């Protein structure tokens, strides 16, 4: 039971981490676009 719970926690952590990474990249992309627009 605890082993399954640990694996489940690991999977959730991986998913959350991947979502956070993609969101961070998306924010960086938006931020870069905004700064480029400001510079022009």
Outline of the structure:
This is Transposase. The protein has 40 residues and is mostly helical.
Written account of the structure:
It is built from one helix and no strands. It is mostly helical. The termini are far apart. The mean pLDDT is 86. The longest helix is centred in the middle third of the chain and has 38 residues, at 2-39.
Q: In this structure, how is the largest beta sheet organized?
A: none
Task: Estimate the global geometry from the Cα principal axes.
Answer: rod-shaped
C-alpha Rg (nearest Å): 17 Å
SS field, number of helical segments = 1
Q: List the secondary-structure elements in sequence, H or E.
A: H
Structural class: mainly alpha
Task: Give the averaged pLDDT, no decimals.
Answer: 86
Q: Specify the helix fraction band.
A: over 70%
How many E-type strands?
0
User: In what range is the share of β-strand residues?
Assistant: under 5%
Uncertain segments: none
User: Span from first to last CA?
Assistant: 58 Å
Protein name: Transposase
